[in-house]
Write a structure and sequence with these properties.
disordered C terminus, Rossmann fold, seven-stranded mixed β-sheet, three-stranded antiparallel β-sheet
């Protein structure tokens, strides 16, 4: 089954959007699934975390900006790259991407279809595609929503943290009604929850009251180490930093499984491993209710990596 595409969107910056994408993709990859993350932000934070310094030097013009140019789409192998983490793939960005955020449709008659067409072409090779969008409702965000099946909106519970929510919901609805009738809201997720705050629980309760089941049950904690260095790789293996004050894995497992559920995927993660839910699965967990997910032959082998181009050749 082809991967579904989720755009992580909020018109307000500083709500932990990129960090959430990193952790969600990292959790999927660590469990043996194959996520593709798309850096659709000219600040390139996602790209800088996902690839090595040597790979950063090779990106140059082999980045997401190619899909937005008025020409035939680039071959997948030119811009889809292996990251420094097993099973996790990236379409990188460079600062030059900003030139595409000031041209083309902004809810005009013809939005840029380049990203949609490209992702439709590569999605059979992945389990889930996550797009990290820029922090304003410009042409790049518009293009991501045109390409996406669903939207996740990260918000920080607070007066300032929720300022971009209504604007984002309205923008999503306009794109849905005009360009992408299949687009749906996967959910709103509370991020950067601070256990020391007395006000955040009140704002979170108000958010849940206003938006009901659209708000994910899990709220993602706010920890400096969680945001600063969320994933640490050794020998190519993905793991979470165990030195952080409170392990984020329980929240991320709940959140990631809820994402899979809301997207209609039969796959779930139990104890860090992916399983496929059988028809008679119960909510209680994997005991007697799941069968081990058969991880197929790796998407790419060592022979598929072009060291000169700095990317995988997907054909």
């Amino acid at each position: 089954m082809s991967a579904q595409i989720i755009a992580f969107v909020n018109a307000k910056g500083g709500v932990g959007r990129t960090t959430l994408v990193i952790h969600c993709a990292g959790y999927l990859a660590a469990a043996g699934l194959r996520p593709l993350v798309v850096d659709n932000d000219s600040r390139c934070n996602l790209t800088q975390i996902m690839v090595t310094k040597d790979d950063l030097r090779t990106i140059k013009r082999s980045d997401i900006g190619l899909v937005y140019e008025r020409r035939p789409g680039p071959p997948p192998g030119r811009i889809v790259r292996k990251t420094r983490f097993n099973n996790l793939f990236l379409i990188p960005a460079t600062p030059n991407l900003s030139t595409h955020d000031h041209r083309g449709s902004l809810l005009g008659e013809y939005p840029n279809q380049g990203l949609r067409k490209f992702l439709q072409h590569v999605k059979p090779q992945f389990d889930l595609i996550l797009i990290d969008c820029t922090a304003w409702n410009g042409p790049l965000t518009e293009a991501a929503l045109v390409a996406a099946d669903a939207v996740i909106i990260p918000v920080q519970a607070g007066v300032v943290g929720t300022m971009g929510l209504q604007e984002t919901l309205e923008f999503v609805e306009v794109v849905r009604s005009r360009f992408n009738p299949g687009l749906r809201l996967c959910g709103i997720v509370v991020t950067m929850r601070d256990a020391r705050s007395k006000e955040m629980p009140k704002h979170e309760a108000q958010l849940r009251s206003a938006h009901g089941d659209a708000v994910f049950p899990a709220a993602i904690p706010s920890l400096s180490a969680f945001a600063k260095e969320p994933i640490v790789g050794r020998n190519g293996r993905l793991k979470f930093d165990t030195n952080i004050l409170r392990d984020p894995r329980p929240e991320m497992e709940v959140f990631t499984n809820e994402v899979l559920s809301r997207m209609g995927s039969p796959k779930r993660i139990f104890g860090g491993k992916a399983s496929t839910i059988t028809d008679d699965a119960a909510d209680g967990g994997p005991s007697g209710t799941t069968e081990a997910l058969s991880i197929e032959k790796p998407l790419l082998g060592e022979d598929d990596f072009d060291s000169n181009a700095g990317c995988w050749q997907l054909g």
